[in-house]
Write a structure and sequence with these properties.
The chain is an alpha/beta fold. It has two domains: 5-259, Alpha-Beta Barrel (TIM Barrel); 266-346, hypothetical protein PF0899 fold (2-Layer Sandwich), CATH 3.30.2320. The protein is 40% helix and 21% strand. Helix 2 runs parallel beside helix 3 (71-86), helix 9 crosses helix 10 (261-281) and helix 10 (261-281) packs across helix 11.
């Protein structure tokens, strides 16, 4: 998938009919005021002015429930974005919304104004997790909305959160497997963060909620990645992007946060898969060479060579060489007693 130049337009908590326990979009986005059509245009022009490449530009409406805001306001925002699409300056329009804010009238309007991708903030498909998180809907509307979105020809995105009230690994794995059945174009995975001035923060202070901690979350999320990877579903984000607000010392009180969170998870994924491969194949010598693409060599090595050292220790080898070649995303070449190319997805378990 070619890298896109994203123009993010945040509509904090705009349109949301209720307050989910984890949500404070004004804190998460760092945007505390509502926006106007002129704000949308100014943002598009600002980003276009400094993009070096303008052949793969996407306007993305983030932060609230876009299709739950009044229709005339949706139209106003979309008209601005669509005008730049008609000029050839924008290629895609994306938005995120709630599963219970999708119907045929809404989709007719989105199709009229050139929307390409609709992401549903599903978070979980477990009934208890939805109830305890005060989502305000059940799981049935997710399946209905996803089916309707795809029937209109939109690309479907799904967002999953882990570590919500009442959640556990089995419930998260269930949600991931159900996501696969919906055949989305892309998925995002977000560990739950406890943000200041949320109901979840109050629950944490009262002792009625326990946050999923960083170390515990890494293997947990790697198990979800494994499901999506095995089904060739594009996971476009893992963890919230750090900002001035979204950081310890900012508005995060607790939860699994790290500025390079995805790399931590993918490093764990590769380490576990490779150790499983070597143990099951017995393809081990005192000196082993592992070859992968640049990104995956970084994942295999781990931050501060932590993974590399753990692999050496686990396998009892003397030397591990890492080398970069132009291989595909899951291909790893092993040079040992026998030389072979493996797909790491076959060995993660």
């Amino acid at each position: 998938m070619a890298k896109r130049n994203i123009i993010p337009i945040f509509i904090p908590h705009y349109g949301c009919p209720n307050d989910c326990v984890f949500c404070n979009q004004r804190k998460i986005t760092g945007i505390s005021t509502d926006i106007s059509n002129s704000d949308v245009e100014d943002t598009i022009l600002e980003y276009l002015s400094y993009f070096k490449r303008k052949d793969n530009v996407e306007v993305a409406f983030y932060g609230g429930s876009f299709t739950a805001i009044p229709l005339e306001e949706q139209v106003g925002f979309l008209k601005v974005a669509h005008s730049y699409k008609e000029k050839g300056l924008v290629k895609y329009i994306r938005l995120s919304t709630r599963p219970d804010a999708i119907d045929e009238e809404i989709l007719d309007n989105l199709k009229k104004y050139g929307v390409d991708i609709i992401e549903l903030g599903v978070q979980s498909l477990d009934p208890e997790v939805l109830r305890l998180s005060n989502r305000g809907h059940d799981s049935s509307c997710v399946y209905e909305a996803a089916s309707l979105i795809k029937s209109y020809g939109f690309k479907l995105g799904l967002q999953q959160m882990v570590g919500l009230p009442g959640d556990d690994l089995e419930k998260s794995l269930y949600t991931a497997r159900e996501f696969v059945k919906l055949d989305p174009y892309c998925v995002r995975i977000y560990p739950t963060l406890v943000i200041k001035e949320t109901a979840l923060c109050k629950n944490l202070e009262r002792g009625s909620y326990q946050a999923l901690e960083l170390e515990d979350s890494i293997g947990y999320v790697a198990n979800l990645l494994n499901i999506y990877y095995r089904h060739n579903i594009n996971v476009i984000r893992v963890g919230l992007q750090p900002t001035d607000n979204i950081n310890y010392g900012g508005d995060i009180v607790a939860g699994a946060f790290h500025p390079a969170y995805r790399q931590l998870v993918e490093s764990y994924y590769f380490k576990k898969a490779l150790i499983n491969y070597f143990r099951s194949s017995n393809n081990i010598e005192d000196e082993v060479t592992i070859i992968a693409n640049g990104k995956n060599i970084s994942n295999i090595s781990g931050q501060g060579s932590k993974n590399k050292n753990e692999i050496i220790k686990e396998l009892g080898i003397k030397k591990l060489n890492l080398r970069q070649e132009d291989l595909t995303n899951f291909e790893v070449k092993i040079l040992s007693k026998k030389d072979e190319i493996i797909d790491v997805r076959d060995y993660y378990r």
